[in-house]
């Protein structure tokens, strides 16, 4: 049964991450997920200091708040002339360093398992179950990540046209009266919630990889956003399922194998895509020369 739970959790994480990842790839902000996964460290420590408990839900709230602040700071720096990649690098390294300082100052005598909080392992996720009135309702990760996936589908489904226009042509969106800044922060809030809710259970590597790689793969296959979202979710789910089987056969890291499969699918697409594939581009050039 644990095998099924692990594949289900991986598929839910892949679907949730790839859904928001498509918009990040289009906006050239793919590494924002990696930034959030490091920058939330001070949020975890502050939540622990204020609550006095290591409860994962309390720490997740602190992490989510800092995640949204991270997005706000990155955007503020970009609006003031700092390049996108530099803004991401400055914010997440500064906040991560601040978290390290807080840990060294205030939590020396406490067993605050930051490795578990920041870099959870998907293999252990099925054991952390959700219990109500003595009834086991399955792993917490399924409920948490599943809820975030539904939230992402609901919000993006309701405002699909606005998100689409803001991603492709923000100037036109503003001219049409669409609040571009609001939808930017709404999307970034979804990214922050998706990242924070996922990596405690499955690990930062899997979350960051699933935000970037399936969306980048789908980008090479189509020029239509809706189809890109569908392809990215399929690529993510396939990567999660096949990756688990490879990890089982080789007795290797599950998250690592899932992202390796996703990377393999990307490289196949990079060369064989009928729209943007390297081989097809060369073939079309040869036809033009002939």
UniProtKB/TrEMBL annotation:
Keyword Cell membrane: yes
Transmembrane segments: 6-26, 31-50, 56-74, 86-106, 141-160, 172-196, 202-221, 228-247, 253-272
Signal peptide (residue range): none
Location relative to the cell: Cell membrane
GO-annotated cellular components: ATP-binding cassette (ABC) transporter complex
Topological type in the membrane: Multi-pass membrane protein
InterPro entries: ABC_BtuC-like (IPR037294), ABC_TroCD (IPR001626)
GO biological process: one example: transmembrane transport
SUPFAM superfamilies documented for this protein: ABC transporter involved in vitamin B12 uptake, BtuC (SSF81345)
The entry's keywords: Cell membrane, Membrane, Transmembrane, Transmembrane helix, Transport
Highest taxon of the lineage: Bacteria
One Pfam match: ABC-3
Family as reported in the entry's similarity comment: Belongs to the ABC-3 integral membrane protein family.
Name this protein carries in UniProt: Iron ABC transporter
Organism: Heyndrickxia oleronia
